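Lecture notes, continued. The same structure-token format from the folding unit now serves as the input rather than the output. Read the line below as a description of shape only.
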């Protein structure tokens, strides 16, 4: 389920920057 959130967030943001790292960290923390 966490992965879905990460994919949605990545789709929402047009660039892969700090947001990507923060999202990935959040998903890892949720797991």
């Amino acid at each position: 389920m966490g992965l879905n959130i990460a994919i949605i967030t990545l789709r929402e943001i047009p660039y892969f920057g700090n947001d990507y790292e923060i999202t990935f960290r959040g998903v890892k923390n949720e797991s």
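Point for the exam: The chain has a mean pLDDT of 64.
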